[in-house]
Design a protein that fits this description.
Layout (H helix, E strand, L loop, with lengths): L1 H21 L5 H13 L7 H8 L3 H13 L3 E6 L4 H6 L3 E4 L9 H24 L6 E2 L9
Parallel strand pairs: 1-3
Antiparallel strand pairs: 1-2
Length: 147
């Protein structure tokens, strides 16, 4: 019971003080619902229109809220890699949490989030150590080598 009460206060404080102070958002409940939806969809491609339809808001609102959550280091997106920029833009990113305690799902989902977080930290470390661009991306497109 105390853990549930703490959790509700934690999310409320996170959203109210962190997010509402960060950017003017008038719909606290929708922002909290976006966060809850993302907690259950860790490791899955994030479709803004699908989330927007489920919550009956505009896709641009969902996209904006996800951007805010990224800016506050609550979530991070892993975007697809492709040499064809147009193709990589069309593919959807996956969302993971910096705080693995926020992840809802089975042990496999929690493990995937932890691995993604470790890989992201490694990418950040490579940038810091080598001073070269380094990023975390989804599957590399296979090159066509012909017959």
């Amino acid at each position: 019971m105390d853990a549930d009460r703490w959790w509700m206060q934690y999310v409320d404080g996170l959203i109210r003080t962190g997010i509402l102070d960060f950017e003017r958002i008038h719909d606290f409940k929708t922002m909290q619902m976006v966060l809850d939806v993302l907690r259950r969809r860790v490791g899955s491609p994030v479709y803004y229109t699908s989330i927007a339809e489920d919550m009956q808001v505009a896709p641009s609102t969902v996209k904006r809220y996800i951007r805010i959550l990224e800016s506050l280091y609550i979530i991070f997106r892993v975007v697809p890699f492709s040499r064809n920029i147009a193709r990589s833009i069309l593919k959807e990113a996956k969302v993971y949490f910096f705080d693995t305690g926020l992840v809802q799902g089975d042990e496999g989902i929690k493990f995937e989030n932890m691995v993604a977080l470790c890989l992201l930290k490694h990418a950040y470390g490579q940038v810091d150590l080598k001073g070269q661009p380094f990023s975390l991306n989804l599957e590399k497109e296979k090159e066509d080598r012909g017959p």
